[in-house]
Amino acid sequence: MPGKGQETWEDYQKIGPGNITGLETMVAYLGGSAFQTVIDNPVTAYRQLVQQYAKNEKGELVSSKVATAEAKAVFKSNPVGASLSGLGPRLIGVGFKRIPKFGALLGIQFMAFEGGDVGLIAATGASIASAPFINPIRMIEKQQRAYFKQTGKEKPIMEILRESKAKNFRPLFRGTVPLMGHSLASATTGLVGQPELQKWIQTQLGSKTSMDRTLTGLISSAVVSPIYVAITNPLSRLEVIMQTSKIDSKRISVGEAIKEVAADTAKFGLSGMFRGQGIGIVKAIISLTTFHEGRLYCMDFFKHRNEAAGRIYKKPETKPKPDAAKPAVPAAEKPADKPKAH
Fold it and tell me: Which of 12, 160, 262, 279 is most buried by a 10 A CB count?
């Protein structure tokens, strides 16, 4: 039975608060995600290599300085190829990854009666529900870049799929557990925290200064990003360790990946644990800002188009509650007084 919220396809196409439909909101989220993916891909690729090269060819842990130099060498030898590596699956993943994630996010949001803003309940549910859909794309993306140093080019997608097929595609789900934590942190800080902080900044500073939406979005992203990266960077390391090992070799478990990060920390201190932290903050600022700018641009487009066509949201009229008091008996219907006894 349909309850409160946009739970049917027809409801999903109805104009809601803000003069935009649920379907248009989904498309706006996908548009913002595609824009973000193209802009932040070079930084994403560079960060993976910095984390992946924590070990040399002999399997020995090396310092962050050595790993960074290795990553820079790869980019210098093939800047275009390295910058665009993994972009194909990431763009395909905008559909395969984002539709389940944003669909779960917005669907749970409406069913949880959280209104127009994404809340914590929706973010938590979406992080768990979307992980099996997202993980194969992330695995393919990382495998494409994993052997750049050895071959100088990205690994073909079909080769990755053939190797995975030999093991019944189970390798595509390596790293799903840390991904759930990563997605939860991403959803709560990026999809929930950043918009709320941006609203506050616009209220406090926007009315008193000439700051526009883009600048306030950049400031809020800069504030949220260090928190987000501090939470997700160790989880990102676990993903990289588990997803960049050879597909035809024995998989690395979550426990083994944790032991590797612990060994790195024991040898190099916090710089070992938080490899890629600095570039991760830069990436997060770029990603959050471009995603929300792209999303808001699309939402404004749909909103203005709907308003021009006269499709304006009308708040449902609330019927007055009936008086709970017992209605008075009309005078004509009152029982006649009994005659007094003489």
Answer: 160
Bridge partners, residue 61, by sequence? 55
Q: Encode pLDDT of 65-113 as tens digits.
A: 999 999 999 999 999 999 999 998 888 877 766 666 555 555 555 544 4
User: Residue 171 carries which DSSP code?
Assistant: G
- Please give the C-alpha separations between residue 99 and each of 5, 33, 127, 302, in angstroms, as whole numbers: 19, 10, 12, 19
| Residue pair 142/87 in contact by the 8 Å Cβ criterion | no
Q: Under 8 Å CB-to-CB from 342, ≥6 apart: which residues?
A: none
Interatomic CA distance for residues 322 and 118, integer angstroms: 35
Spatial separation of the C-alpha atoms in residues 56 and 70, rounded to whole Å: 10
b/e string for 221-240 if b means 16 or more Cβ within 10 A? beebbeebbebbbbbbbbbb
Query: What is the model's pTM?
Result: 0.71
| pLDDT tens by residue, 236-279 | 899 999 999 999 989 999 999 999 999 999 999 988 888 988 89
Amino acid identity, position 311: R
129 or 27, which is more confident?
Answer: 27
Residue with tokens 């779960």: 104
Q: Which CATH number applies to 9-308?
A: 1.50.40.10
pLDDT at 114 over 50: no
Q: Distance between the two ends of the chain, CA-based, in angstroms?
A: 67
Please give the torsion angle defined by the CA atoms of residues 288, 291, 293 and 298, in that order, rounded to the nearest 10 degrees. -160
* Residue ranges covered by each domain of the chain: 9-308
Q: Which among 4, 53, 34 is positioned nearest to 240, based on CA atoms?
A: 53
